[in-house]
């Protein structure tokens, strides 16, 4: 039996119709739009290794999270070492790189962005893979609610520029550490009498981090939560966190970025503080989140920094964005198509076709046939490659030093001298 790709992974294929998440060109399109908008906002690209020290994820993401307890891919090698993990998310690695490389010297706040594969050993389902791809944005060095609002607005700008219309921002706040401590005390008091009825995961979370119970996937847990009429985290915000939350809303309203207040938001990672939000699209099913983000002012110190480095950031899943685009019928790019395709009618003229193609690549995409081709066969190949213009080269073309270019869409034919080919392509490609 032939070897197949691992479960929960996808090959990104060239020129592939159908399922968008396997189209290499569609993935590249998402990354290109994100890069353009984030870099216009002053974000600089950063790349971190796809594997990190296990301790980074354990300390940064939080020991009570499903990521650490169930979903990490651990990598060992011969020698005395505690192991590496394939990165399950982007924020902790970016903050680690910021601290380790002294990036504070680049100014504050520092805006960074990245993209690439992430890895989680979770159940495979629609839009949920074991290797998935994210675009990630981080702003380090500011506690200003303006930074929070800008981060949310940038996420909104990207998905709307991609053509999505059915997206919504669900905005909340999980307060400061003391607010969360008070809320966790409240939750422990509420759930402890029902301990025996909770799922095994929620029993463990009750002592570690009771807020995680509210995000439980167990139907029994969710029924208990509904029955107890649990108060939202927003009811426990202190004055400073409440003022911060109000300021974020004010900026978004002034910019015309739509949002809905969602008191139930509980971000899945322990490092979040204050602002938290999710981006949803109902068309991709019950698991409708495309991505999300939040503020993480305490993360740097969790990773060993001597002083606090405030931060705000987000990530969205590229595969999930593509599913939403497919649901709305947003067109996908099909990859690069040459402006020009040349073929030789005789083997003697293949080198000439190759030389003219290389010349044309200075201004446009161009390709040629490695073998001699009849005119009909050459134009069929050009059409299959998606070329705009095509021509054949024989003794007449070589003698006259001129091509007869055919537009494959309209059938129009234009005579173009060799030395004017690049000028023509600049104006007509």
TrEMBL record:
InterPro entries for this protein: aa-tRNA-synth_II (IPR006195), aa-tRNA-synth_II/BPL/LPL (IPR045864), Anticodon-bd (IPR004154), Anticodon-bd_dom_sf (IPR036621), His-tRNA-ligase (IPR015807), HisRS-like_core (IPR041715), HisRS/HisZ (IPR004516)
Keyword Zinc-finger among UniProt keywords: no
Catalysis performed (reactions): tRNA(His) + L-histidine + ATP = L-histidyl-tRNA(His) + AMP + diphosphate + H(+)
A Pfam match: tRNA-synt_His
Keywords noted in UniProt: Aminoacyl-tRNA synthetase, ATP-binding, Cytoplasm, Ligase, Nucleotide-binding, Protein biosynthesis
UniProt EC number: 6.1.1.21
Keyword Methyltransferase: no
A GO MF term: ligase activity
Main location class: cytoplasm
Domain Aminoacyl-transfer RNA synthetases class-II family profile: 30-333
Subcellular location: Cytoplasm
Subunit and partners: Homodimer.
Alphabetized HAMAP family for the sequence: His_tRNA_synth
Similarity comment: family membership: Belongs to the class-II aminoacyl-tRNA synthetase family.
Annotated protein name in UniProt: Histidine--tRNA ligase
């Amino acid at each position: 039996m032939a070897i197949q790709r691992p479960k929960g992974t996808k090959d990104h294929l060239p020129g592939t119709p159908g399922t968008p998440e396997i189209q290499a060109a569609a993935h590249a399109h998402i990354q290109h739009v994100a890069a353009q908008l984030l870099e216009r906002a002053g974000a600089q690209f950063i790349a971190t290794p796809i594997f990190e020290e296990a301790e980074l994820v354990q300390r940064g993401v939080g020991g009570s999270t499903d990521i650490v307890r169930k979903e990490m891919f651990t990598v060992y090698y011969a020698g005395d070492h505690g192991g590496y993990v394939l990165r399950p998310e982007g924020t902790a690695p970016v903050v680690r790189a910021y601290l380790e490389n002294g990036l504070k010297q680049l100014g504050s706040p520092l805006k960074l962005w990245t993209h690439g594969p992430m890895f989680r050993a979770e159940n495979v389902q629609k839009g949920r893979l074991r290797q998935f791809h994210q675009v990630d944005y981080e702003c380090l060095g500011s506690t200003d609610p303006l930074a929070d609002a800008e981060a949310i607005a940038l996420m909104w700008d990207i998905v709307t520029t991609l053509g999505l219309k059915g997206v919504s921002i669900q905005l909340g706040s999980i307060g400061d550490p003391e607010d969360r401590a008070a809320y966790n005390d409240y939750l422990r008091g509420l759930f402890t009498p029902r301990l025996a009825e909770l799922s095994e995961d929620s029993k463990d979370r009750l002592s570690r981090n009771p807020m995680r119970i509210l995000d439980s996937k167990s139907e029994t847990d969710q029924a208990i939560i509904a029955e107890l009429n649990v108060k939202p985290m927003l009811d426990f915000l202190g004055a400073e966190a409440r003022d911060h939350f109000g300021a974020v809303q004010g900026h978004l309203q002034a910019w015309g970025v739509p949002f809905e207040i969602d008191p139930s938001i509980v971000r899945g990672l322990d490092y979040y503080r204050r602002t938290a939000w999710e981006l949803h699209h109902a068309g991709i099913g019950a698991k409708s989140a495309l991505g999300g983000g939040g503020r993480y002012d305490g993360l740097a110190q969790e990773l060993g920094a001597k002083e606090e480095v405030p931060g705000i950031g987000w990530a969205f899943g590229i595969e999930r964005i593509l599913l939403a685009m497919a649901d709305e019928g947003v067109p996908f790019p099909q990859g690069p198509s040459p402006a020009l395709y040349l073929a030789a009618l005789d083997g003697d003229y293949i080198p000439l076709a190759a030389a003219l193609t290389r010349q044309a690549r200075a201004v446009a995409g161009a390709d040629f046939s490695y073998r001699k081709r009849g005119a009909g066969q050459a134009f069929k190949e050009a059409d299959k490659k998606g070329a705009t213009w095509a021509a054949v080269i024989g003794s007449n073309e070589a003698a006259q030093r001129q091509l007869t270019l055919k537009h494959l869409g309209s059938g129009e034919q234009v005579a173009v001298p060799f030395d004017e080919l690049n000028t023509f392509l600049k104006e007509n490609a």
